[in-house]
């Protein structure tokens, strides 16, 4: 809810900025309010994006895995659906009316969300029992750093096939202060973090063009060229594949859907095809020397198609993998790390352009730029392939813990023996039979 409030505050600051731009000439005051609008918008978006998945899942108590997967996929599809609608309207409207339409639409949407949440919040699950995951991780790591050997040695300490690691020494059975679930949760988090490199690899290839954000209206181009230059093809492809998956594959061909990590790996292959096809296009089709007009050719629909497929495979599958494998207490934190990995990819993407002579402000037309990004994508794919092969899935089983049963049995036996030896001779101690179950 805090994210929506921050976004609404950003909308108010933007409105003040529009008023100042229309009636006053104070650039300092204008930049001040636009700066506040930008900061609150980014803060609100990240807060909303990182918590909305966890919030939606909390509402679906007792839901099946298919229902949770559908929620995650519809959540991922919301972004390309909104961009498809925006780009269709954006390229059809001439003049500055697009700013007014976008501003009014954003205000109405945020108002509807705020009002609906106020009316129906009593029917939603708003009680969070999640503890601080960072505190648990720090405590487990500090205990592992300070202890090299088990605190509670017994004949069964080394019964297991492998010797316990430093982080495993924090478990109760080795004399540590943490339960087995808490330690395994921390280990799962550290196993999952390297796999987020797939999201970094995808967003490194995502081209965000200057004129999409600024809305440059001084360029006279056709409707089709506008759609090409604004990457409409990749958003439309993503929407189509999302609908095919949700309406056809998931209900009918569920057993043919590959594993999540395999889908992510295939998505990285499509991400490589995106950059490789752009490299070939800019070698075969020399761009116009002008730096103030967008470069458009129907061939750009090919890399846009590849990226749209990569978006569906990586974003949805990686988010599903993050939610499925993350411990319940750490799910929100891991979704935040997933979102942060997207930001890392965009930072690499933006700063990589400065090393090449990208004269066109709308789209970099240097083929060497895309060749380097192709190599970077191959590196990301190789790292992800090696990490995914070594990843050990977290499976929570309800089988009988033989080690725990034997440990408890001998602990009670030793306690009763000490009680016999310490009790007076005329005291009768009634033993409680605790059969040893194998």
Structure characterization notes:
By secondary structure, the protein is mostly helical. The protein folds into 3 domains: 1-59 and 93-127, no CATH class; 179-395, MFS general substrate transporter like domains (Growth Hormone, Chain: A), CATH 1.20.1250; 397-438, no CATH class. It has 15 helices and no strands. The model is unreliable at 210-215 and 428-438 (pLDDT under 50). This is Major facilitator superfamily associated domain-containing protein. The chain crosses the membrane at residues 5-24, 30-48, 95-115, 232-249, 261-285, 305-323, 335-356, 368-387. Keywords: Membrane, Peptide transport, Protein transport, Transmembrane, Transmembrane helix, Transport.
Keywords for this entry:
single chain; 438 residues; mainly alpha; Growth Hormone, Chain: A; 3 domains; 67% helix; 0% strand
Radius of gyration: 28 Å
Tell me the quaternary state: single chain
What is the CATH C level class of the largest domain, in words?
Mainly Alpha
| Mean of all residue-level pLDDT scores | 78
The tally of domains stands at 3
Give the helix/strand class.
mainly alpha
**Helical stretch tally:** 15
The description of the largest β-sheet is: none
Which term fits the overall shape? globular
Q: Stretches where pLDDT falls below 50 for ≥5 residues?
A: 210-215, 428-438
**By CATH's scheme, which homologous superfamily of the largest domain applies?**
MFS general substrate transporter like domains
Q: What is the strand content?
A: under 5%
Membrane topology: Multi-pass membrane protein
InterPro entries: MFS_trans_sf, POT_fam
Family: Belongs to the major facilitator superfamily. Proton-dependent oligopeptide transporter (POT/PTR) (TC 2.A.17) family.
Transmembrane segments: 5-24, 30-48, 95-115, 232-249, 261-285, 305-323, 335-356, 368-387
């Amino acid at each position: 809810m805090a994210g929506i409030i921050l976004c609404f505050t950003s909308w108010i600051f933007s409105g003040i900025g529009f008023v100042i731009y229309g009636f006053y000439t104070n650039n300092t005051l204008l930049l001040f309010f636009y700066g506040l609008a930008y900061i609150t918008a980014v803060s609100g978006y990240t807060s909303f994006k990182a918590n909305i998945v966890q919030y939606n899942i909390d509402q679906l108590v007792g839901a099946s895995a298919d229902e949770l997967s559908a929620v995650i996929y519809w959540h991922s599809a919301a972004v390309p659906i909104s961009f498809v609608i925006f780009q269709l309207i954006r390229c059809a409207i001439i003049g500055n009316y697009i700013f007014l339409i976008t501003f009014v639409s954003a205000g109405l949407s945020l108002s509807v969300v705020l009002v609906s949440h106020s009316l129906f919040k009593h029917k939603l699950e708003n009680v969070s029992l999640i503890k601080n995951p960072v505190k648990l991780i720090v405590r487990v790591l500090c205990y592992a750093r300070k202890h090299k050997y088990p605190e509670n040695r017994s004949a069964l300490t080394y019964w297991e096939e492998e010797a316990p690691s430093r982080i495993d020494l924090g478990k109760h059975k080795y004399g540590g202060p943490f339960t087995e679930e808490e330690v395994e949760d921390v280990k799962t988090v550290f196993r999952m973090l390297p796999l987020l490199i797939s999201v970094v690899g995808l967003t490194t290839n995502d081209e965000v063009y200057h004129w999409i954000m600024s809305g440059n209206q001084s360029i006279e181009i056709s409707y089709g060229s506008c759609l090409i230059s604004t990457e409409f093809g990749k958003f439309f492809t993503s929407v189509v594949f999302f609908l095919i998956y949700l309406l056809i594959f998931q209900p009918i061909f569920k057993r043919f859907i590959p594993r999540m990590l395999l889908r992510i790996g295939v998505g990285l292959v499509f991400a490589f095809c995106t950059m490789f096809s752009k490299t070939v296009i800019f070698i075969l089709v020399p761009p116009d020397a002008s730096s103030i007009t967008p470069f458009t050719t129907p061939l750009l629909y090919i890399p846009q198609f590849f990226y749209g497929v990569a978006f569906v495979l990586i974003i949805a599958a990686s988010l599903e993998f993050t939610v499925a494998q993350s411990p319940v207490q750490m799910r929100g934190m891991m979704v935040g790390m997933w979102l942060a990995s997207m930001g890392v990819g965009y930072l690499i993407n933006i700063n990589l352009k400065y090393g090449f002579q990208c004269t066109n402000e709308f789209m970099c037309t240097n083929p060497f730029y895309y060749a380097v990004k192709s190599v970077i994508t191959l590196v990301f794919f190789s790292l992800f392939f090696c990490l995914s092969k070594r990843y050990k899935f977290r499976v929570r089983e309800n089988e009988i813990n033989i080690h725990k049963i034997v440990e408890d049995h001998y602990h009670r036996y030793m306690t009763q023996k000490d009680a016999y030896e310490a009790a007076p001779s005329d005291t009768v101690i009634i033993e409680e039979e605790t059969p040893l179950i194998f």
